[in-house]
Amino acid sequence: MSGVTGNQDVDIDLAQLVRGVWARRLKVVAITLLGAGVAFAGAKMISPKYRSETRILIEPRAPAFATAQATDANAGQLLDELNISSQVQLLQSADLIKLVISSQKLYDLPEFDAAANSSALGDILIALHLKKSPLANPPEERVIDAFVERLQVYQVPGSRVIGITFTSKDPALAATIPNAMAAAYLAKQSGAKLDSNSEATRWLEPEIENLRTKVSDAEQKVAEYRAAHGLLPTTGGGNFQTQQLNDISAELTRVRGERANAEARAQSVRNALSSGEASDTLQDIMSSQSIQRLKGTESGLQSQISDLQTSLLNNHPRLKSLRAQLADIKTQIRQETQKILASIENEAKVATLREQELEQQSNKVKANSAQAGEDEVGLNALEREAAAQRQLLETYLSRFREAASRADKNSSPADARIVSTAVQPVDPYFPKVIPIVVVAALATFIMTSIAIMLAELFSGRALRPTSSAEVEERIERETVEVVVAAPPARVPAQSMLAVQQEEKDEQEDEVAVDLVPEQPEEENEFSIASVAHYLIGSRAPLAIAISPTGDNGSAATVALARTLASAGSRVVLVDMTGSGHPTELMAQGRSLPGVTDLLCGEAAFGDTIHGDYLSDAHFIPQGSSDMRRAMRGADRLSLLLDALSSAYDLVLVESGAADVAGVSKLTQSKTVEIILSMPEIVEEEFVAAMTSFEEAGYERVVLMSGGNADGNATVAQQAA
Q1: Residue 619, phi then psi, degrees to nearest 5
Q2: CB-based contact 618:609 (threshold 8 Å)
Q3: Which CA distances in Å does 542 have to 462, 650, 661, 689, 703?
Q4: CB of 703 within 8 A of CB of 526?
């Protein structure tokens, strides 16, 4: 029966849902096996279908004599994504499908006739007008529809490859159809190229003949126009008048330069003669042979006069004769210079006359050139028309030669090639017996489990009350069961905190082991539920449980943790006992990583936290590492407890039969909750424990027994 009554708030008990499924595990297994068997039988009854695939690569293919430039020009178009999609649609066209159906004679196969494959269910649906009768369509359309249903054409992602897949009951036919589709596609593409070349050849022939006539007429008109207007061609590409004007202009520029040069030379000679300066620096004078000879004679006479003046008087006849000769030479030099000046002036005059003549010729040629320019406008128009007709003729001739060279079938391959041919499959594509059975078994198992969980929810067995009275009643009942089920008191083992103290005592060859050989017979009057309510009310982040009597006290601490968890608190129990009894009660085993593994560095922090199998409480077990080696890192226990306190409402540490010295290693705070877990109170041990903690300065010491009081619970608290 459900424990929910009235209008109480309830929660879903997930553990009860799992237990409900586990209790009916035989039924679940039987139904799962039944579902798997049905799936296996159904898969075996289905007719197998086979699938095979052919792959085609779309790429430019040209004859061997084609140029690389033409191939590259075609490649840009074929690489386009839309072009590949268009080829996929072409492979699914009705004309291509009809061609394959005819070549393979598929009209005679019952597999492609829906009317021959009718079933009783199909006949019923047709009778109820829920399905169209296949006989309503003509036989050709029925075959095409069946063919399309089995055909799949797709583009391989990220490539220019097209896959052709076909499914059939006949494995040989499944491989034949894709290969036939590919062959028909390539033939159709190649035939389209041949048709295009033949049509181009037929159209170009009359056009070329017409263009030849037009080109001849246009060139004749150009020649006649040139002759009529005197526009004779020149090597520079212009007309004769323009070329003549250019030549006269160049000659006029040269003559003007010569005239200016001659005038400048004559002026420099005149300036030298008028000023009486030496003419030795003038190029025209010094280049004269006569001047050079006279200058040589003058220099010789000057030398003789200079030599004789050293030995003869100035009036000596010899000196007079030489001076007379020197004066005559200078006169000759002056006369020769005058001749050179006259020659230069004559050059300037000739250049002036030549310049005037060229200017007159230039004016006449300019008039003729202007008229030739006007006539050349018409000539240019005729030449452009002739050039356009000639270029068009050359283009048509090139196209005609190319089309004519591709008239052969082998010279026009399709822009695609088969990269993978279909082979006859061995294994059927459908049905896959093992995957079908596995999926059916898994689905049956899930559906059966869901049905059982829903039954548990509807019956109320998987619902638990959340009101405080019901929670307290159930807590009291579970606590009594846990305490009664606890094993009888035994000699307690050393706690983990006592081990560290023993490490120090071993240096002095002393081992301290506290033994409690007898069981208290006195009834406990302090209930676990009262301690739980006290801890919830105090909002204590950390509580350390001491169990002087051994495993009985540890069992009561486990009951306290479950009580707190049932009340909605997030609680974690840390097993610091030597016997590991809390771990046995909460985990049904002692092979889980725990505190000792964490302190030895053999387990991560998150791997040491586990869930209680009977409640929502969490716990950190004792662990399986060496306890003595683990307690060498006991300084990190306080960090561990601080981390847990930030994640849980309460951290409950079960330390077994630990003393004040051991507890002080866990925390430096004196306001921590100390719980003396004594299911059967031993007065001497209780008084001794209370006294020791009071002397150590701890403010709160709580006594907890395994029994439950009917009224308000009494909590013994020792204030410092």
Answers
A1: -150, 155
A2: yes
A3: 32, 6, 17, 19, 16
A4: yes
Residue 177, H or E segment: helix 171-229
Spatial distance between the Cα atoms of 379 and 219, rounded to a whole number of angstroms: 11
22 Cβ contact list (under 8 Å, min separation 6): none
- Stronger pLDDT, 200 or 467, i.e. the higher one: 200
Please state the separation of Cα 508 from the chain's center in Å: 68
- Give residue for tokens 């170009």: 204
Q: How far apart, in whole angstroms, are the C-alpha atoms of residue 692 and residue 460?
A: 50
Is there a cis peptide before residue 60, judged by omega within 30 degrees of 0? no
Residue 93 belongs to what H/E stretch? none
Side chain identity, residue 102: S
Look at residues 67, 50, 153 and name the one whose alpha carbon lies nearest to residue 416: 153
- Give the DSSP H or E segment for 396: helix 317-405
- pLDDT surpasses 60 at 175: yes
The model's pLDDT over 28-76, given as tens digits with 9 standing for 90+, comes to 999 999 999 999 998 888 889 999 999 999 988 766 555 444 444 444 4
What is the per-residue pLDDT across 204-215, written as a single tens digit (0 to 9) for each? 788 888 888 888
CA torsion through residues 184, 190, 192, 194, sign: negative
Q: E-assigned strands of 126-246? A: 151-155, 161-168
What are φ and ψ of residue 542, in 5° steps? -140, 135
Q: Is 341 in contact with 273 (CB distance < 8 Å)? A: yes
Any residues with CB less than 8 A from the CB of 112 and at least 6 apart, and which?
A: 106, 142, 143, 146, 147
Confidence of residue 411 (pLDDT cuts 50, 70, 90): low
DSSP 8-state secondary structure symbol assigned to residue 489: P
Strand pairing report for 571-575 and 650-654: parallel
pLDDT digits (tens, 9 = 90+) for 517-529: 333 334 545 788 8
Tokens representing 203 are 């159209």
Please measure the distance between the N-terminal and C-terminal CA atoms of the chain and give it in whole angstroms. 49
Give the other-Cβ count within 10 Å of 294's Cβ.
21
pLDDT at 714: 32
Three-state DSSP at 575 gives strand
State the DSSP code for 430: B
Name the residue among 15, 10, 12 with its Cα closest to residue 466: 10
Q: Are 57 and 416 in contact (CB under 8 A)?
A: yes
Gap between the Cα atoms of 574 and 594, Å rounded: 9
Burial class (CB in 10 A: 0-12, 13-18, 19+), 448: buried
d(CA 385, CA 698): 118
Q: State the pLDDT at residue 76.
A: 45
Residue 19 Cα distances to 14, 15, 441, 465, 614, angstroms:
9, 6, 21, 18, 11
Greater model confidence, 136 or 323: 323
Neighbour-count burial of 292, counting CB atoms closer than 10 A to its CB (0-12 exposed, 13-18 middle, 19+ buried): exposed
Q: Are 573 and 542 in contact (CB under 8 A)?
A: no
Residue 621 in 3-state DSSP?
coil
Judge residue 499's burial from the number of C-beta atoms within 10 Å of its C-beta, 0-12 exposed, 13-18 middle, 19 or more buried.
buried
The HSE-up count of residue 469 (CA atoms within 13 Å, CB side) is 5
Alpha-carbon torsion (529, 531, 534, 538), positive or negative:
negative
Average pLDDT estimate for 411-424 = 84
How would you classify the pairing of strands 700-704 and 673-677?
Answer: parallel
For residue range 469-495, list pLDDT tens digits in order.
Answer: 444 444 344 434 433 333 333 333 344
Dig out the tokens for 680 from the structure: 């059967």
* Region at 574 (left for phi over 0; alpha for psi -120 to 50; beta for the rest): beta
- Residue 67, classed as helix, strand or coil, is coil
C-beta neighbour count of 172 within 10 angstroms: 12
Mean pLDDT of the chain: 75
Report which of 84, 55, 320, 49 is spatially closest to residue 170, judged by C-alpha positions: 49
